[in-house]
Design brief:
With 289 residues, the chain is mainly alpha-helical. The protein is built from eleven helices and three strands. The chain is elongated, with a radius of gyration of 25 Å. The mean pLDDT is 94.
Length: 289
């Protein structure tokens, strides 16, 4: 004979051991244990109103298999939130490092309107698209994360920092190359070609970097699913960025200078390099696990 008190004691015993406890039930006698559990699950068809009111999750079809689908979806959403946050923070970190370095060395690498464009177009569009990413193949085979685990755990914080530094270095390199092509000198001084190439490199690097974040540790080339929203965002960002550089009206508004095809290709090549760099780091990280 199992009483409501017994169920409540079992839930509390597991929680005392540090376990994450889920409790299912449909009757009034299940309500105390469901309320005490970390995740209370009520039955939508046969469950009483009392049980439904204290439950965090209600099974509309009373099918326990639905719990597995719910866990999968919850993990996917949490995963995508982490990806979007990591992308936005690493992108903004690269901007901070680039502008700070340029300020210390006494030259201008990006103007306020350029940073505004990057934040509105090449940051926000991929971040939203990453939120639509499908679940990774190994999602349900991962062990449950701890209740007190932070958003920057499992190496996310370290990844954010090195990826931000990576994009900043590529942006500074693009500026240096741009000035070299313009003046024939390797130096950090104010340069119209340098600014335009730095802007193009940072914009495109962040777009390509968003593809890296489709998986935190897995290779993006091993993913069988496709994110059409990310593809669309990349195409739109490339077209819009090309317009502000090569259409004279917008070029004047953004204070860019016309760059040659070679300069455009160099900037694009530097931007694309974020994919093999991160793939190499991921490979090293996987081998260490």
């Amino acid at each position: 004979w199992v009483t409501p008190a017994h169920k409540l004691r079992i839930v509390k015993a597991f929680k005392k051991k540090g376990k994450v406890v889920a409790m299912t039930g449909d009757g009034v006698n299940d309500a105390p244990a469901i309320k005490s559990a970390d995740i209370g699950i009520g039955m939508g068809i046969t469950g009483t109103d009392v049980t439904k009111n204290v439950a965090e999750m209600i099974l509309g079809d009373d099918n326990f298999a639905t719990i597995v689908s719910a866990v999968n979806e919850g993990r996917r959403i949490y995963d995508n939130v982490k990806k979007s946050i990591q992308f936005l923070l690493s992108s903004n970190l690269s901007e901070v490092i680039s502008v700070f370095t340029a300020t210390v060395l006494g030259f201008t690498i990006l103007k306020p309107v350029h940073i505004l464009w990057i934040n509105l177009i090449t940051d926000s569009i991929p971040a939203l698209a990453l939120g639509m990413e499908k679940a990774e193949p190994d999602l349900m085979s991962r062990p449950p994360r701890k209740k007190n685990e932070g958003i920057f755990s499992s190496g996310t914080g370290v990844d954010t920092i090195y990826q931000g530094v990576m994009v900043a270095v590529l942006t500074l390199l693009a500026y240096l190359i741009g000035h070299r092509i313009e003046s024939g000198l390797w130096e950090f001084v104010n340069s119209d070609d340098g600014i335009t190439m730095a802007f193009l490199t940072m914009s495109m690097a962040e777009i390509f970097h968003s593809f890296n974040l489709r998986s935190q540790r897995g290779s993006i080339f091993s993913l069988k699913s496709h994110n059409k929203y990310l593809y669309g965002g990349m195409l739109a960002s490339i077209i819009l960025t090309a317009i502000v550089i090569y259409v004279s009206f917008f070029r004047d508004v953004f204070e860019f200078t016309h760059i040659s095809f070679m300069e455009y290709a160099i900037s694009l090549g530097l931007a694309v390099s974020v994919i093999p760099i991160v793939e190499l780091v991921k490979l090293i990280q996987r081998k260490k696990v």
